[in-house]
Structures are given as C-alpha cells and as structure tokens.
C-alpha cells in the first residue's frame, strides 16, 4: 500500500509540474516557443506583468519539492540499500532548494544570490541524487539504468548551463537539467506502482 501511495504522489507531482509550467509558459508575455527556448523557468515564477500566472509556476516548484521529500522518505527509501545517509541528505538539499526557488524570486539584486543558491541546490543536488539512487539499489536493471542516464544527462546539461550563463540558449540547458528530475519522478512513480 505504501508503494502505491508513494507512486501516485510521484506521478501527480511530476505531471502537475509539467502542466503548470506549460500553462505558465502559455500565458507568458512572449510566444510559447520563444518562452521555452529563450526564457528560464525562474522567469515564469517572477510575479510581474510578463508572467501573470507566476503563482502557478511557484506552486509547481513547491509541489515537486514536497513530492521528493514525501516519496523518498515515505517509501522509496526502502529500495535504497547503500548510501542511505547521502540519499537522505541529497533529497533534503534538492527539495529545499526548489522550494527556495519558489519563495525567493530571480531578478531582485538583493535576493538573487539566494535564488541562485536554491537553483543550484535543486538542480545539482537533484541530479547527483538520482545518480546516487541508480547505484544504491539492490539490482541494476532497466529502472536503475534509465535513472543513471538521466543523472548523467542532467549533470552535463547543468555544467553546460553553468558555464554559459550569458548565452541566449542557456534556458534550454536549464530545462534539460531540470526535466531529468521531473522524468525521474514520473518513472519512479511508475516503478513504485509496479512494485505494489
């Protein structure tokens, strides 16, 4: 039963994120394609005229953070055989980071550093987390292999983004490094439901 509940939470959290971002991007003050290609996810969460549904994007950040905490601590921890302490720490780092992103917005010189710290915690911490997960379970089958690939893609995209912050294509690498976490949340939900 716990696997089913955690699985549903992972699925709902990931789907809510994708839908909320899509709706926020659709309402953003640019074309949908331009928004996805040239505007960061954080921009969708800044409360101003450009993003009239910023509250929706920020709610998605909070929900995916809570999804990680609940799903990992409620049931998924039972599948982690090695590196449990690292697993717990990285779960909290990633989850708290994405919640900071929701509560402290980009674009304000006074608080921008805190927002950036939250983003690094969420993206870097989250992708290292799923990399650790892939090598900390009892078996190394399809789920673990997909998780490993997602972690590697996420880390590569993060480092490309990090060293190309001034590039107009930076938002693409940002989304690549974030979507690996959303995809992992979805496939983890499916994995837990199959284990039920």
Q: Topology as H/E string?
A: HHHHHHHH
How many β strands by DSSP? 0
For the residues shown, what is the average pLDDT?
96
As a whole number of angstroms, the C-alpha radius of gyration is: 16 Å
Most strands sheet? none
Molecular shape: globular
Structural class: mainly alpha
Oligomerization state: single chain
Distance between the termini: 7 Å
Helix content: over 70%
Number of helices: 8
Strand content bin: under 5%
Uncertain runs are none
Count of spatially separate domains: 1
How would you portray this structure in words?
It is a single chain. The chain is an all-alpha fold. The chain has one domain. About 75% of the residues lie in helices and about 0% in strands. Helix 4 packs antiparallel against helix 5, helix 6 runs antiparallel to helix 7 and helix 7 runs antiparallel to helix 8. The mean pLDDT is about 95.
Key words describing this protein structure:
mainly alpha, 8 helices, globular
Topology of this protein?
Elements: H1 2-27, H2 32-38, H3 41-44, H4 54-74, H5 84-103, H6 112-134, H7 142-162, H8 170-195
Helix pairs in contact: 1-4, 1-8, 4-5, 5-6, 6-7, 6-8, 7-8
Question: In short, what is this structure?
Answer:
It is built from eight helices and no strands. With 196 residues, the chain is mostly helical.
